[in-house]
Amino acid sequence: MSQPKIKTLKELKAAGYTSRSIKDEMRDNLINRLQKDEVSFTGIHGYEQTVIPQLERAILSKHNINLLGLRGQAKTRLARQMVGLLNPFVPIVAGSEINDDPLKPLSRFAIDLIAEKGDDTPIAWLAREDRFSEKLATPDVTVADLIGDVDPIKAANLKLTYADDRVIHFGMIPRANRSIFVINELPDLQARIQVALFNILQEGDIQIRGFKLRLPLDMQFVFTANPEDYTNRGSIVTPLKDRIGSQILTHYPQDLEVAKIITAQETQATSERTVAIHVPDMAKDILEQISFEARNSEFIDAKSGVSARLSISGYDNLLSATERRALRSKAKNATVRLSDFMGIIPAITGKVELVYEGEQEGAAEVAERLLNDAVKTQFENYYPAVKKLQKQSEPDPYQELLQWFFEQSGFELPDDLGYEDYCTRLDGIKPLQRLVDKYQPDLLEQDRYFDMELVLWALASSDKLSKHALANGMEFKDIYGSYISGL
To answer: Where in the chain is the domain with CATH 1.10.10?
Structure first.
């Protein structure tokens, strides 16, 4: 929508403009969307029946909002999308530092200008994209940053004393008047700074160096916080929590399908590769399962959380590992292999907070264990569970395959094998072929070899085979045969 052509206060009045608070504006626009059955927040998956209805109720109630949740739960994205509920443009007094409403001026500048020029007061238009301000709460944030301070340079230039309110330099919050103002990681804000927000949220008063200004700022506040912060790094002071109308709990994806949608959405921008890469569905499931395993791992701090960025970064690394292999072999297309997952270890280690036991194990060891657990979990969704103890009366679906390994000295799967050699090497294990064909007969040819490798990894994770990382690949052996041969 193009910017309105109204340039003066007289034209604005003639057009029938009426002032509305930002909360009324957002409420009315949300009502319009709900009546038209339009989506309020796009690109946010898994919150359709939980977080988004609560957020819509808070906006309808005209509340300031606190989004409370662990890292990587789209809190900031939700806040930024609230801009879509604003009008395309709103009028302001031209030159105003705090976006004064021409019909309800607050600042000394706007009041004096309207008194001087009357209906000829110049009008400017503020786009919705410019009505969003965001501040990360850090310990070094001051009251002057957020609220304002006396500006000695302005006092000297205007030849004013410090008793004149025109020497005030407004901070971020007054300058975001008639806008959405987001404070991320609120508990990290020092308690004395949080106290400075009390009157702004409730009464509209601000105090700057002894000046008490009655500025009923028109703002929609959105705060984000991590529950861990309440005990570890800081806290939200009780009177401030009392002034925040709605506290909404966010959460991680509750099932694998939603997690896959999120990862696919976030990796689209980085998915352009010089090599055409095919990713089997099983590979995508395993990638997401790693995050689910991490959130339940005894080695990882559950209070810190496991961000959705683990899967996103992991997917990038997985494609890059496949792409690198294809580039080295001069191939124009490639399929993800299970061994390529070793390339995502760096993406895991940087995204998890280890507890003491995890530190003792080591970050890389924990990451590899998560990968093996994810492989085992997904494997058992499609193949019979591998039992540690098997009754003689029960047929063991893996007995023939294990016998093959018992009779062999070992099976190596180098990373740099070309596609044909890779397939030929796996096809050489006839019991493995028959097993995959029996339980997954409808697989694509490309996906079939991924599943063949999956069976080997799953048997190794269940201590039926031994798996060793080589300098350039993996080696699988019979766990007992290798021991006996060692003797």
So the answer is: 385-487
- Tell me if the domain spanning 385-487 has CATH number 1.10.10: yes
Per DSSP, helices labelled H in 244-308 are 256-267, 281-295
Mutual orientation of helices 445-461 and 430-439 as an angle, nearest 10°? 110
Q: Which residue's entry shows tokens 């004064």?
A: 100
* CATH architecture of structural domain 252-381: Orthogonal Bundle (1.10)
Q: Give the pairing type, strands 220-225 and 65-68.
A: parallel
Instruction: Please give the structure tokens belonging to residue 182.
Output: 């987001």
Beta bridge partners of 441: none
Nearest to 307 by CA among 72, 77, 74: 72
pTM of the model: 0.86
* Tokens standing for residue 153: 């340079």
- Name the token pair of 150: 């006396």
Residue 189: enclosing H or E segment and its boundaries?
none
Classified by CATH at the fold level, domain 9-140+172-249 comes out as Rossmann fold (3.40.50)
Measured CA to CA, the distance from residue 472 to residue 466 in angstroms comes to 17
Q: Mind listing the pLDDT tens digit for each residue in 215-231?
A: 788 999 999 998 865 54
CATH 1.10.8 positions along the chain are 252-381
How many whole angstroms separate alpha carbon 115 and alpha carbon 113? 5
Q: Bridge-partner residues for 68, per DSSP?
A: 225, 249
- In DSSP terms, 333 is beta-bridged to 276
Query: What is the distance between the terminal CA atoms of the chain, rounded to a whole angstrom?
Result: 80
Specify the domain boundaries for CATH 3.40.50.300 within the chain: 9-140+172-249
**Do strands 246-249 and 276-278 pair parallel, antiparallel, or not at all (unpaired)?**
unpaired
Q: Which two tokens stand for residue 207?
A: 């105090």
Q: How many CB atoms lie within 10 A of CB 403?
A: 13
Q: Are 46 and 131 in contact (CB under 8 A)?
A: no
Give the amino acid at 327: L
* pLDDT per position as a tens digit, 6-36: 999 999 999 999 999 999 999 999 999 999 9
CA distances from 410 to 59, 465, 475, 483 (A): 64, 10, 7, 12
